[in-house]
Amino acid sequence: MDINIIQKQIENDLTGIVSPQELEMVRVKYLGRKGILAELTGLIGTLAIEERGPFGKEVNALKNKLLNLISEREKTLRIQSNIPKESVLDIGLPGISQEFGNSHPIIQIIDEICGIFNRMGFSVVEGPEIETEYNNFTGLNIPLDHPSRDAFDTFYLKNYPKLLLRSHTSPVQVRAMKIHKPPLAIVVPGRVYRPDAVDASHLFMFHQIEGFLVDENIRFSDLKGILELFAKSVFGQDIKMRFRPHFFPFTEPSAEVDISCIICKGKGCSVCGRKGWLEILGSGMIHPNVFKHVGYKPGKYTGFAFGMGVERIAMLKYGINDIRLFFENDLRFLKQF
Amino acid sequence: MKVTYSWLKDFVNIKLTPRELAEKLTMAGLEVVSLEESAGDFIFEIEITSNRPDWLSILGVAREISSLTDSKLKAAKPQELGFKASGLKPVEISVADKKDCPFYSAMIIRNIKVASSPEWLKKRLGSLGCRSVNNIVDITNYILFELGQPLHAFDLDRLGQESINVRRGRLDEKIITIDGQQRILDHEILVIADKNKPVAIAGVMGGKETEVTEKTSNVLLESAVFNPILVRRSRQKLGLQSESAYRFERGVDLEIARTASLSALELIHTLAFGKPYAYKSLGAIKSAKSEIRLETAYISRILGVSIPVFKIKQILTGLGFIVKTRAKGILVVKPPSFRQDIKLQIDLIEEIARVYGYERIPLTLPAVKPHQNVSGNRDIVSGIRIILRGLGLQEAITYSLVDRSLLIKSGINKNTQPVEILNPLSKEQEVLRSTLLPSLVRTLAYNLDQQQEYVNIFEVANVFSDKNSSAQHQILSDELVHACVQEELSLGIALCGSKSLLIKQGLIKDEVTILHLKGILESLFNKLGVKVYDFKPQGDNQINIIVGQQEAGFMLKLDEQTLDSFDIKNKQVVLAEVNLSKLFKHINLERKFINIPKYPAITRDISLVIKDKFSVKELLAAIEPKGPSLLSLVKVVDYYQGKQIPSGFRGLTISCVYRAPDRTLTEEEVAPLHNSICALLEERFGIKLR
């Protein structure tokens, strides 16, 4: 076979072509598995050794030329035919994806806060929701028949007079300290229950995060330092903080912690009740009686504890005005977080 | 509690503006929650913490202002009686138990003229939110607000005269209180009684019969100190609240009780022309307060700031404490009578910190030494949440307390006894739920109502069950009682409706089925390294989830009737609940690397028609190699039921993957193995190849 003849023949074959189908037939005729070029390649082995090289080169050159010719022809055909390409991408169409599930905003806040304390070296511990009266009250220096109990309206279990639904996460202090000796650095997230009439800011179930640090020399100044680090991590570096004296039976001295209102920056608005301050948590130095109840040697340890309502933090952070939204689980609510 | 700016000024000079004063008080622990201007005066509403009954009066707040602003307290000293208080003839007073009533005093005032109060008195009471009754009652209230000592005036002529006795109530004794309600008494309730019957509930409320009216001309004025716990129990038992009980249950100052009588007498004399006739008191008039040893080093150990000793002394003295230096670094402190809250060294430190100013205590960062041994399943639960979210599920949080009827109408977990609540505020808080699913179904229904087409949610929370409600719990220890109520972590999943998927070929509606749930659980279990699990059908709608060899939960398709009761129309609801405490044991997050196969596999599909009585599970079990084999994987890649398949049959395509670890397999090697599998299926299940 003469390569030149083949080349002529190719040119002839290509001139009459008007459709992609015809072009494909030509391609198969020459370049297919059993096409002419394959045949030529097959011939190489039959030639004398010194002829093989030059012939091979010629075949390759022909093959390249042919590929070029076909692709040129293809282009002209496409332009002529004006037929759209296989598919035209409209990037305006919705992307194809899977919908992602969201975590509940309360869980997000709990994870965020526990994460902050985790990085400071605190461990996360949980405790039961059904508690003994002792752990919920007496062990925390809240005596029976004392008005301080009024702040902790509590659900009791019907058939078990000594059991109740914990009204705060603080009983985990008693539990943890009964088992472990200091140093202790713990945060406790969880559900708590109080028989409160339901309105936009009260519910009978909500979440708290408790934290406590106990060692031989923990001071009120450490409480201030840790809580400032925490509040700035959650609400931003620009906030101001203040510690106000307060009373909790299980801490002394006790403090309520306010941050400058994140809505009005302290000028006074409806969210902060024109005060410019938002109360975010309660805290204090763990009362010596609590240490006594868990059997620590008197005077050996000092420590601080704090507790906060997760819903309150979430409401402030996200600008949510009704606590009930958290438990309605409207997908239009949940999917925002 | 409310106080007014002008009334405070009776007791202390205030140089601060009302706003500055509010700020000062707030930062000292008397949180001013509102400040209002009213008729030229300012009304402060202060939240008084339960440890500070001494602040529950104008005098108490003024005392605090005086120490905060270093301004002298103008304590009013009422005039002493002009006669010797020797007896109270014709009335004999007695106290049955000193512990119930450490101090009791009565003063007889004669020839009073009961009338309405003068304007200034009405206004002062009104600004604190107290209604004016008549001059006598108003004066007792005025003294209560001003000095914090509750007083009670009886109409002397309507008392069964000869005796006044402070004693416990007797079973089934009754009294009609001033508010017109009949109260039934018992031994837990402390009363003031005349010879025949109770005339007042001690410290809580007086009786209607002996109240002061326009007809009253002689009164017996009571000023007493009652046991705080008794007053608290009485008022709780009777469901009563009063300004008097509020103060008594927190503790009143023993040493002001007498002053209060005398101050009231002054006012009664001025406003109602009454004359004192007799006075008698029983019990101590001085409170016994012991000294507290205060180590100055301990102050800085607690606070993290070193306060000079002279400053410490100044603060405590300003608050009415008597301070002496015992040795270097050791003070001895005696609290004033009105500070019953001060018992320990730490109580003094709080006072020092409060007045010194929390804002002056520096910020430091402690060395946090985390405890190694505290851990739980929290990380695993976090992992579970992440996996489920990754599978597209939304996380919900629903109430642990539910209406019992919700559990019943769901029909789920019927045999578990839920834990009952003694004091629910409403039906919605009756029981602690024993399953998460009814709440999740309610959430589905709610969202369908909001026109959602597809709802897929999960919740991780505790469920509760009462294992032994009939046992005698009174005698068991806390731990044993606790073991009777079980609290276990549970995972609930609820799916409903059709998921819309817009893919290249257009819209696909994918209606949820139990298989969707199964897929979610399989992904979850596989990701958690749970090796042995299975799904076992139980009747029509329920499939049990077996983990290891143990039942660990179930999947459920809700029946029409239940869907109806939740108002769910034309939608399938599928549910799953997994007991996480049972799952935890089987979770294995350790991983060992397995070499990636070096040689290519040969895949052969079998398309077949099989009677639909055979389960795919059986089919796969028959094929799966029992030992080492070239067959490395068998899976269902397609199934079909429809036109081309005769009824009672279904079409399946099973993909077999053959692979050798040490060489590239050839067609010739695979063919006999594959043919034997086809033959086995034909023989065992009567399949027809398509």
Structure description:
The complex is a heterodimer of chains A (337) and B (690). Chain A is an alpha+beta fold. Chain A contains 12 helices and 9 strands. Chain A has 2 domains: 3-81; 105-334, BirA Bifunctional Protein, domain 2 (2-Layer Sandwich), CATH 3.30.930.10. Chain A has helices at residues 3-15, 20-31, 36-43, 49-81, 105-119, 133-136, 171-179, 220-235, 288-293, 310-318, 325-328, 331-334, and strands spanning 123-124, 130-132, 163-165, 184-193, 205-215, 241-248, 251-260, 277-286, 302-309. In chain A, a hairpin with a 2-residue loop joins strand 6 and strand 7. Helix content of chain B is 30%, strand content 28%. Chain B has 20 helices and 32 strands. In chain B, a hairpin with a 2-residue loop joins strand 26 (542-547) and strand 27. In chain B, helix 4 (119-127) crosses helix 5 (135-147). The chains are: A alpha+beta (337), B alpha+beta (690). At the A-B interface, helix 5, strand 1, strand 4, strand 5 and helix 8 of A face helix 6, helix 9, helix 11, helix 12 and strand 18 of B.
Q: Please compute the radius of gyration of chain A using only Cα atoms.
A: 39 Å
Q: What share of the residues of chain B does DSSP label as strand, in percent? A: 25-35%
Shape of chain A: elongated
Domain count of chain A: the total is 2
Specify the CATH architecture of the largest domain in chain A.
Answer: 2-Layer Sandwich
Annotated CATH architecture of the largest domain in chain B? 2-Layer Sandwich
**Major sheet: arrangement of strands of chain A:** 1-4-5-9-8-7-6
Low-pLDDT runs of 5+ residues of chain B are none
Mean pLDDT of chain B: 91
* Full CATH superfamily name of the largest domain in chain A: Bira Bifunctional Protein, Domain 2
Shape of chain B: elongated
CATH topology group of the largest domain in chain A: BirA Bifunctional Protein, domain 2
The SS-based structural class of chain A is alpha+beta
